[in-house]
Specification:
- This protein has eight helices and no strands.
- It is elongated, with a radius of gyration of 25 Å.
- By secondary structure, it is mainly α.
- The N terminus is likely disordered.
- The longest helix is centred in the middle third of the chain and has 34 residues.
- Keywords: Membrane, Transmembrane, Transmembrane helix.
């Protein structure tokens, strides 16, 4: 009888280790709210900076060269894009933080909580923040290239802006868990989630259609803007 009990003891220990390996379920609403807040505050700051700089340069100065005219238009477009993206960051994160006041089921990790309840909001916030930030930095470099008289310093400022944008994206990939969505995967995942949501929500369907229309128009307009600038400016 004693031998039988001793023989059973290791199996009981193994079972307890298996139970201990199961992740503990926790309430992650507070952590998720803090995460969205880390995007909302800098998003608001970048939106304010972009709004003040978007229309700072006149576009129809007849003394401009063809290259300068194109750069001015690219600068205005990038700043307006940055403003729009960062305003979406502020709006989406604010709505998500408000929704987090409700009660949700406990989850084993913050990532699992976000994937189950706020995946579209989280992906949209990250994507818009990084696209908006990259647009802002590139526009800043273009503005420096236009405004700085010394061509060497102007090119250096442009390169610093580009490298800063790329370095920021690299840090995001490095600091996120392996099972999280990488920066280069965000556009495709966002398109998937938005398309899925659009099948059940007219508002999301209208937003998706407007986004596709905007991207199509921008692609169509680029050669026309270049042709206009070439015909108008020397």
């Amino acid at each position: 009888m004693v031998a039988a009990v001793l023989a059973a003891a290791p199996s009981l220990s193994a079972d307890s280790s298996v139970v201990a390996a199961v992740p503990e379920l926790r309430d992650y609403t507070g952590a998720a709210s803090a995460l969205f807040g880390t995007y909302r505050v800098p998003g608001a700051l970048f939106a304010g900076a972009s709004a003040g700089a978007a229309f700072a340069m006149p576009l129809d100065d007849v003394a401009d060269t063809f290259k300068l005219a194109l750069c001015k238009r690219a600068y205005a477009f990038l700043m307006v894009s940055s403003l729009t993206m960062q305003m979406q960051v502020v709006l989406i994160s604010t709505v998500a933080i408000g929704a987090l006041a409700n009660r949700f089921d406990e989850e084993p990790s913050l990532g699992a909580f976000l994937r189950r309840n706020f995946e579209l909001e989280y992906v949209a916030t990250r994507l818009n923040f990084y696209v908006g930030l990259t647009s802002f930095l590139v526009a800043l470099g273009v503005r420096a290239w236009i405004s700085i008289a010394c061509p060497v310093v102007a090119r250096a400022a442009l390169l610093v802006s580009f490298s800063g944008a790329l370095l920021g994206l690299a840090f995001d990939d490095n600091t996120h868990p392996q099972n999280d969505i990488a920066v280069h995967q965000l556009p495709w995942r966002y398109a998937q989630l938005l398309a899925r949501k659009a099948t059940s929500s007219p508002a999301y369907a209208a937003a998706a259609a407007a986004s596709l229309l905007s991207m199509g128009y921008v692609a169509w307009a680029i050669p026309h803007v270049a042709a206009y600038a070439r015909a108008t400016f020397r």
